[in-house]
Amino acid sequence: MSTNTTPYIGENSPLNKITAFFSALQSSAEEYLFVVDLNSKMILLSDNFMKDFDFPSNMVDDLDNLLMPFIYHEDREIFEEAMRNVWTEDKGKTVKCEFRLLHSNGDYGWVNLSITVGGDEFKDQPEFMCGVIKRLDKIAKADYVTGLLRRSVFYNDLTDELEKPNAHGAVIVITLDNFNVITETYGHKFGDGALRQIAQNITNVLPPDIRLYKLDGYSFGLFMPDAMPEEIEIIFASVQLCMREIRNVEDTIYCTASAGAAFYPNDANDVTTLMRYAEVALEIARQKGRDQITFFEKETYDRWRYDIGMQNTMQNCIARGCEDFFLCYQPQVDAKDGRLLGAEALLRWYDDDGSVVAPMQFIPMLEKSRMIIPVGHWIIENAVIMAKKWQQYMPDFQMSINISLYQLEERMFYPFVEDCIERHQIDPHTITFELTETQNVYDWEFVNKQFSAFHDLGIQIAMDDFGSGYSNLAFLKNFRCNIIKIDRAFIEDILTSNFDQNLIRYVTMLCHSIGMQVVIEGVEDEATYKFLRDECKVDQIQGFYFGYPEMEDVFVKRFKK
C-alpha cells in the first residue's frame, strides 16, 4: 500500500477549492468520505478509505471498479443503480442506498451511502459530487431506550482498559431474570420505561467513575479497574436492592437480576475471552436459581464446556437415529419365590470414545433440554419390541419403562404409544410406565388425565422412587397409579433401623389396602430380601441380589435356564 501523499490538483479543479476543508473534515470523521471532480472524473478519498481498502492512492480515477470487489455480490446492483441515479438528479439532491461491504476484519456489514451532486452557485453545470459511506454498526452507539452506550463501545473501552500497563480488575455482565414477563404483561411501552428506570437505578449505585453499558436484550455490562471480589459482591447487592421494585399506577412489579464476573488478567486478558467467561459465569448463576452473582472458575467452566459438548454429541446421536443409545434390562422378581416377572428398561449411552456414560450425567440433561422427547420415543419403541420378543419365552413378561413429565406434556405422546402397541401387537397390560421423579408435579389434574388415558389403553402406572424428593404420602391421594416403587434409601438400614422397618411395613399395608402393589428397589443381599419378603410382605423385588442391568444377550439366558 502506498503512503498517503496529496497528489497535484490543477488550479481550476473544484477539488483544489475544497482540499483544505476536506483534509480537516476527514481527521474528525469515522465515515468514508470522497469527492468527485465531474470534469476530470478524479476522485479524492479520505485517508481511512484508502487505508481500509488498500487503494493505491487517495486520488483515484475509477472508484466504482475499485470498490465493486468489496461489495457483497447480491448488493452490487444496488450500488450500480445508485451511481446511475446520481447523474439524473438535480444539483443539490442526494441519492442514498444501503448495501453490504467487506470490512477490514473480513466480515460483510451493512453500510449507508449518501451522494450529493453540487457545483458553483454561478454555474448551472455541476462541478463535483460528495459522498459519505457510513457503517451502520457504528452509527447507533447508544441504546435508544436507556441512553446507555452499546456493546460495540463497551468492547472498545474495555480494549483500551486492557492495554493499560499492569491493568487488573473485573468484567461484570448483569441480566434481568424475568423482564420479558413484565413486558408481555404490561406492554412494550411500560417495559421500555421500566428498563430505562432500572438502567438509571443501577447507574446511581455504581461508583462515579464506573460506566454502565447496554448489551443485548435485557443485559448490561461494566468493567471495574482494581476491583476485588468482596467489592463486587457489595455493589451487586446494591444493584439487587435498587431494582427490586418497578412501579406503575396499579401494581408493584418485582424483578430480579443475575450476574457473572471474570477477572483480568487472572482469568483472561483479551476482550473476547473475558466476555465469554463472564457470560458463562452468568449462565451458571442463572442455573443455580438466579438472583445472584457468580465468579468465573476454570473448573466450573471446564465442567460447563463438557456438558455443552455432551449435549451437542447427544443431539447428533439423536439425529442419527439414537444409534449410540442402548437399553439394559434389570430383572424384577416375585418377592414370594424369586420368580422372574419382568424387567425395567434402563437407558444407557456410549460417549464418543466408546465409554458408557453414567445415567445421572446425561439423563438430567436430556430432560432439561427436552431431548428426552425423541429419545423417549426410541426407548418405548425398543422396549416394546424386546418385551414382545421375550414373551415368546414367557407370555406374561412385564416391561417397565421410565417416562418423564416432559413426555406427558408432548401432544403426540399418547398417539405414538397407542400406535406402537398396535404395530407390535403387544398386550398393553404387560407394559408399565414409571413416572420418574425429576421435577415437581404442579398440575395433578393434568397428570391424572394423561394416565387415565393410558389406564384405559391397558397400560399400568407406577410411581418411581417413592419417599425421595417430593414424593410422599400425599402422592397416594393425588396420583392414581397401580404400583409404588419405594426408594432404595429406605432399605439401606432396614435390618437395624426400627424406623425403616416400620415405614416399609405400614406403607406396604396402606398400599395393599387401596389396591396398589409395592416394588422395592436396591436389594443387594439375601437377608434384606428375606426381611422384605417375610416381614413386610412386599410384592416385587428389584436389585443386584437378583441381577444387574444387563444387555439383551445376557438377560435372555434367564429364559433358557
Polypeptide structure, described:
- With 561 residues, the chain is an alpha/beta fold.
- 40% of the residues lie in helices and 22% in strands.
- The chain is built from 20 helices and 22 strands.
- Helix 7 packs antiparallel against helix 8, helix 8 packs antiparallel against helix 9 and helix 13 runs parallel beside helix 15.
- The protein is elongated and about 115 Å long.
- The N terminus is likely disordered.
Descriptive keywords:
561 residues, alpha/beta, eight-stranded mixed beta barrel, six-stranded antiparallel β-sheet, 22 strands, 22% strand, disordered N terminus
Short characterization:
It is built from 20 helices and 22 strands.
Q: What's the structural blueprint in terms of helices and strands?
A:
Blueprint: H1 14-26, E1 32-37, E2 43-45, H2 47-52, E3 59-60, H3 63-67, H4 76-86, E4 94-102, E5 108-118, E6 128-135, H5 136-139, H6 151-162, E7 169-176, H7 179-186, H8 188-205, E8 213-214, E9 219-225, H9 229-242, E10 245-247, E11 252-254, E12 257-264, H10 271-287, E13 293-295, H11 298-319, E14 325-334, E15 340-350, E16 356-357, H12 359-368, H13 372-390, E17 398-403, H14 405-409, H15 413-424, E18 431-435, H16 444-457, E19 460-466, H17 473-478, E20 483-486, H18 498-513, E21 517-521, H19 526-536, E22 540-542, H20 552-555
Parallel strand pairs: 12-13, 15-17, 17-18, 18-19, 19-20, 20-21, 21-22
Antiparallel strand pairs: 1-2, 1-6, 2-3, 4-5, 5-6, 7-9, 7-12, 8-9, 10-11, 14-15, 14-22, 15-16
Helix pairs in contact: 7-8, 8-9, 13-15
